[in-house]
Model the fold of this input.
Amino acid sequence: MTQILNYEFKIILPKKAVSFFENALEETASAVLTVMIEHGLNKGKWELQAIFEGKPDESYLDSVLKEAALKAGIEKPDISVVPMPNKNWLKECYQSFKPLTIGRYYIYGSHLTDPLPVDKITLKIDAATAFGTGEHQTTKGCLMALDELTISPLRVLDVGCGSGILSMACAKGSGRKVDSVDIDPESVRVSIQNARENGLSDLLNVFQSNGYESVVGRYDLILCNILARPLIEMAGDLANHLNKGGIAILSGFLTRQERFVLKAHEEVGLQFLKKYRIDGWSTLVMKKED
Done:
């Protein structure tokens, strides 16, 4: 008999509600996967799948979903939490994803058999236990910001590197070294593995750090795709590690949280340059005053 370890539920949501439910489930679920429905009665709506390691506390889950529905202005959807077979669901889900083209970046999985485009910066990212395959709106926003970056940074730092996707995009695009840090040892392991898979081991210096705790020196570019609260709390640390005239690309927060993140960084001497908003999520580009 197959041992059951994981549980899931699926719900159908209008587009306006997706970001509220993703944010609400971020700390409760092991993974949240969303896909737009292209056919049938629910065409144009979104299916959200939440996956849990072990059976979740359904009363707590109900309260989380009620709050998300209230914020989204919809009725709370009914859910049925059901067991999943013990299998590598991350890999199976990833293999259903199509390659992504974001600006000059082309992101694909190792299951792809088609020829790679010669006019793009190609990044191979397979399913893993670290955030960052290019699917999420915040990763897309950061890659769009990198694609339009007008400076050529000598020193780059990626805080909360996850899968290492942003570090690799920067390193492969510039040929320069990138320091990549994450508080999660699993993310450090995955980033090192992905750097090896992309032939970038010599350009990525990956190590574990609680925010900027183990970071030494100043940088011309700092990438930070995490969450609103730690971004706000670490704004001073970011400013201390950013050279004058340096650029910060900040993401991982909802558009309604944007003004708080912006204010925290303006208060430590950064000025706003540009924003990217994708489906309720924001990315900010800021510059340290000269």
In short: The radius of gyration is 19 Å. The mean pLDDT is 87.
